[in-house]
Amino acid sequence: MADEIAPGIHRLATDYPHVCGLPLWLHVIDAGSELVLLDAGIASTPESSTAPELASLGLGLPDLTLVVNSHAHPDHMGGNAVLRRHSGARFAAPALEAGWLEDNERLVNELWGSDPDAMALSDAERSELFEMLDERVRIDVLLRDGDRLPGERPLQVITTSGHSPGHIAVLDETSRTLFTFDDVQGRGRPYLDSSLWLAPLYTDVERYTNGLTRLLALDFDLLVPSHGDAIDATAGRKLIEESLDWVTAVDTLTAGLLRTRGSLTVRELADEIGTELGAYGGINLQTVRMARAHLEHLALRGGAEPRWHHRP
Ligand SMILES: [Zn+2]
């Protein structure tokens, strides 16, 4: 049953907890001439969850006029193709990620295949991803920092570039509700069905911290993440601070390991982050991308020397 988190904004449940063991909420906003859906879920979400959730509000998928993808990860845009089939909605997404949003091969190769020595997808994992992604849909409205979403309601786009290179937040100026989607990650999130945690994910340390700092400066009463419950401003600011503290912790770990060991591979650092800083399950997409981001960050500041060596 969809509940109203602020006037004209309803939170919709999804099938994601059953599929991937994490909460995932979508939101529908009455923006006057536009009925806006924030994020699409995975391929199975629109029919299994979004349609019945909308029905509880007396609405249906055909009523949607605008679908916004906060970033190009499967749980936020995999439902696009089904939504297109059931509605005349236009699709809006960060201009910076249009390439990933319109090309599954490119997304999977560049995100999951960036560090083949550290991590490689099995065939089963690859086909699971493609199943969640479904067919790609052309993005009609390319969003840039400072844009307003179409409609009469002042919905401001803020490019945070943290969790993924073009990631956006959306601020509803009417109710001072800040949708941060996956950008405010704290120390990660516990899985619903195991004792493990999902680690934070970001690909550029500087961009992640700059984006978080921008969010901290905004006026908001409610912070709404995709994979957790909405929280008030005090708790929201605390979570942003915790996200920044996490970055410092990984930086300290990276510099310390390099000092004692002399050299470090992405895989070695990912394993340390994924075991030493918490129960993150060692090597995975999140820890590998963070390891690489922090090594690059250190190299840019002159604290490490990137080297390649010949493999016979
Ligand atoms: Zn997500």
TrEMBL record:
The keyword Zinc-finger does not apply. Residues 23-227 form the Metallo-beta-lactamase domain. The keyword Ion transport does not apply. This is Glyoxylase-like metal-dependent hydrolase (Beta-lactamase superfamily II). It comes from Kribbella shirazensis. GO terms for molecular function: hydrolase activity. Keywords: Hydrolase. Coiled coil: none annotated. It comes from the Bacteria.
